Amino acid sequence: MLTKSSTELVRQQNSSLVLSALRRGGPLAHTDLSVLTGLSSATVSAITADLERVGILERLEQKPPTGRGRPRVLFSQRRDSGYIIVVRISSDTVQYSLADYSGTLMDRFEEARGTSSGAGSAAASDPKAFCAAVVAALDRLAQRSRLERRQVVAVSISSKGLVDRDAARLIWSPIFGTAEIDFAALLAGAGWDATVVLSNETLLVAQALMAAAGRGAETPPALAALSLGHSIGLGIARQGRGGETEASAPNFGHMLHTPDAGLCRCGARGCVEAAAGFYGILRKAFQVPSDTIPAKFVPLAEMDKIAVSARQQNRMAGYAFREAGAALGHGLARLISLYGAMPIHVTGLGLRYFDLMHQSMEEALALSHAVRIGGMPAIHVVQDEPGLVFSGHLELALQVVDASILSARL
User: Fold this and answer.
1) What stretch of H or E contains 239?
2) Which residue in 224, 211, 213 sits closest to 395, CA to CA?
3) Of 12, 215, 221, 364, which is the most buried if we count CB atoms within 10 A?
4) Concatenated DSSP letters of 89-155
């Protein structure tokens, strides 16, 4: 019995390698799959035959360029094998996306927070109303594509804050504070059988960046994603011993910076976010008392005005952004001291003000012993945070879909 179980496990693992290669490389032939996965040609042939038999793969024929000879047989995923829904919870909107088994986006819509419908109005601050809006939106997304709930294999949800990934439970968030939301129980109670995956948003960014780096010439052993905006997020992706990506999301925004940084949305004083988040910059620019209760949401138009003022040499506006940069730099210095040197990828809405923070961030980093010895880490600006978040969702959720489909059909 043990031998049979081990054989089944190996077969599923090898099948997952083939599916992952197809997702990265598009339609591929046996020889391509063998090279990309490291599996023998015979093993690949057996796997593709099994996956085709149970309806996970389909074969395509590619005619030779000359028009002569036998067509080249390529394999790709059957797009209708299963579907995933991606839910991205932001400070001002909730975005819902539907993708098929190949990772192709099929449908998407957003519901604004603070409006009269969907995840807005009362749902903007009331967890119960928000949960009801989420369930209604999932039903609407499925109905728009004429899908039954059973066809949706995974629902992948992301938010800023602290999450329990194993239980799909939101523990703390900038939006709902300490009001916990159990998404697995929520969807099960609403009649959804899909596997629920909950992730910190910036962890997904780091995951996507590492996946993109893996398709390049050289994959770094580790990298960090720093998200700037209403909240401050950090994700770390590292290569495991077996080549797999290990991602984590330290509670960077709520790490202590300095006690006089002011009151944070988490209720503590002196967090990195209390100085570097939008509300912290707003508070410093207008010399608001540091114990003022932070705003849950600062309109970009208001932040843009402060930035214009700073670029016009307004003393307090410029000081606010420099203090934000210093808080980020000191936090990143601690990160490097703990985890070692790694490239830093900066993303998020706050990138539009990064020119006002970059210098003070590097100056704070340079004070660190680890940076003085090892040198300044490479700092990259990455504009498309929403695209990275979606890619990170697909990376994780499709792995869940693979495992679910393989266990059910093989």
Assistant:
1) strand 233-239
2) 211
3) 364
4) E-SSEEEEEEEETT--EEEEEEEETTSSSTTSGGGGT-HHHHHHHHHHHHHHHHHHTT--GGGEEEE
Distances (CA, A) of 224 to 202, 208, 210, 346: 9, 11, 9, 8
Burial 120-145 (b: 16+ CB within 10 A, else e): bbebbeebeebbbbbeebbeebbeee
Question: 169 CB contacts (<8 Å, ≥6 apart)?
Answer: 163, 180, 181, 182, 183, 184, 198
pLDDT in tens, 191-242: 999 999 999 999 999 999 998 887 665 778 999 999 999 999 999 999 876 6
Instruction: Identify any residues that bridge with 320 across adjacent strands, giving them in sequence order.
Output: none
Q: pLDDT tens digits for 57-73?
A: 988 877 766 666 677 78
Determine the Cα–Cα distance for residues 369 and 47; give it in Å rounded to an integer: 52
Residue (of 371, 368, 383, 380) closest to 330 by Cα position? 368
**In order of start, what are the domains of the chain with their CATH numbers?**
2-77 (1.10.10.10), 81-201+388-409 (3.30.420.40), 204-385 (3.30.420.40)
CA distance 391 to 385: 10
**What tokens does 407 get?**
């266990």
Q: Which residue has the higher pLDDT, 28 or 122?
A: 28
User: Exposed/middle/buried for 221, CB within 10 Å: 0-12, 13-18, 19+?
Assistant: exposed
Count of positions (residues) in the chain = 410
Contact 165, 199 (CB under 8 A): yes
Contact (CB, 8 A) for 333 and 371: yes
Burial class (CB in 10 A: 0-12, 13-18, 19+), 151: middle
Q: Please state the three-class secondary structure of 271-285 as a single string.
A: EHHHHHCHHHHHHHH
